[in-house]
Amino acid sequence: MRFVFEQGKWLPEALAKEKHKDRRPISRLPDLPSCEKNPEFPFSPTLLAFLEGRQLLIDDLPFSLEQIQAHYENGYLRYQKGITQTERGGYRCERCGNERAHLFASFHCARCEESCTYCRQCLMMGRVSECTPLVVSCVSPKRIAYDRPLVWSGKLSHAQQAAAEAVKQAIDRHDELTVWAVCGAGKTEVLFPGIAHALERGRRVCIATPRMDVVLELAPRFKQAFPTVPVIALYGGSEDRFKQAPLVMATTHQLLRFYRAFDVMIIDEVDAFPYSVEPMLQYAAAKARCEPSALIYLTATPHPAWQREIQKNKRMAATIPARYHGYPLPVPAFEWCGHWRKQVQKGRLPRNVLAWANERIQGGRPALLFVPHIALLQQVVQILKQLDARIEGVHAEDSARKEKVHAFRQGAIPLLVTTTILERGVTIPRLDVAVLGAEDDLFTEGALVQIAGRVGRSAQHPNGDVRFFHYGKTKAMIAAKRQIVRMNRLAQERGLLKSP
Amino acid sequence: MLKQTDVLCHECRRSFALIAGDLCECCGRPFDRVDESYRQGELCADCVRWKRDNAWRGVLTKNRSVYVYDAFMKEVIARWKFRGDYALVEAFRSDMCREFFCHFPRDSLLVPIPLSSARLYERGFNQAKALAELLGCPILDALERFDSAKQSKKSRHERLETDRVFHLRSDVLLPADASFVLIDDIYTTGTTVRHAARMLREAGAAAVSSFTLARS
Questions:
Q1: What residue numbers bound the domain in which B96 lies?
Q2: What is the pLDDT of residue B163?
């Protein structure tokens, strides 16, 4: 759409009373000024509630253009540019922060009748182009204080308690904090006291995570812990999409629709994002935060750069080196397995890998075997099926993925071959894991720590076998093992481990 | 000559299913994707039905389509047309051009199926026009579309009953002897292109065919 200037104010061309020669897309105008707030204006509470803390497209708003414009003219909302020019003459998407030239494209736009550039990075949230205004509210979000909102009967371990205290303090002081909690530490509960503190002060809290299944898993847990507080879960296609709540669980993409909405931003599994997505997450999180606000990162496997910053005290961090059950993390064993790719090509597996698989099946212990690529996965499954026909494989594009993981949990599949998609979020009692080809680039330090972290998670079965089969050790493998050993030592030193 | 590098990776390129093999000589339906009973000589049962209908006989000379409208193509077209990722049109370029000139003459006159003005504003571009622009033949925006309910929500019977979907633009003069080719994104029942073809025929066009990106 285009804007025109009429009787001292800017308005969408469609609402102009006269014909104008000078009509321009918002990107080709100076920033549109905010109007002075008119307290007499009979504003629409539904419209304001809809827009509270959000940054939306006009297409997202189920209100007429006249209504939207009236709220602009009376100082209740503002129009922002969707696409701006960078200093170096490139484009920037103001919704998702994209500045990469190959993620922009142009077309002759029927809305502005000009060549119009749009962002391809956040396209799935509705197209932002040069003639697309982003609509934000000028009214700051409602803040309601809740009296003792936390109803949770569980008890934090010593290790959890210390971190929970640090989280609470960071939230109170609007600080930034990284919680480095080993796999199985119970990091969700660590957030409870801090979030309760925030809600008592009427602060708005968001927990963002890369994956939709994590949103779906977390939301009921928080609803249960904070029964008097409205909680919404936001992901693509979620019914809560335009509801408001002081406690929000959202996928990163949904975060893009927020603007200065949260006093506490918690980012879960910050390391799980593909490197290319991370800048968008950082941008979205920064945009969704109020000034001032607290920023809490949760991770079991921080990137090496973050680990260095933590060690040099350049990054505030609280470490939980022990699992909630107080048993040490299983340490991976390295086993050389020769030129295994060549063997697989010939329809065979290295002898020690086959022996490992056989032991699990004989012993009736569920086992995950991680392989680097889908093509390999299918070959390996074919070979292993000769051992036991129930063995299956699963990968990201597998349409039966859910069913297979379910069957594995039920024990119907004794051994599941998988790509890295199951490196996180799987908790199965008595599990053993192995990696075939641990030297592959895909298996970063973080991925290997996560894989090892699948084992021994339940208090009843805190031990298990972690095996990295390789054709030459890599730095990532050594760093992963070192990280696990160091965490166990740290836990020992702090007296967090159960004495044997 | 240097070969242009593909805008798609191998994986994605392989997932585009080209229409090939034995086709219905009228609508271009691949016979290997339908039951044998559906075939009557060189025609499919649908085209036989069109031919029996006095009102529609001979309105459309033939249709040809580039890709099978399968689950993958559905996804691609949805991102392109509904999400509005205009740039994806480049992925269709080489196949569109090659297939078009296999079936239609160099001097074809292209008529893109128009959108209603409301739909055009909503999408920001007309996908049929974007396809026509790939081919390098002259384009004539001869038609306009009346605003009405979405085609895809109607049954075949309802579609046929909707009497006038298009009208001829008053400022357009048709060169009657040109070989007209309607361009659209998807051929489903063929009703849309036949409605458009009928308008052109009534205005004096001698022969009208259609060419679409995909067909079900």
A1: 10-215
A2: 64
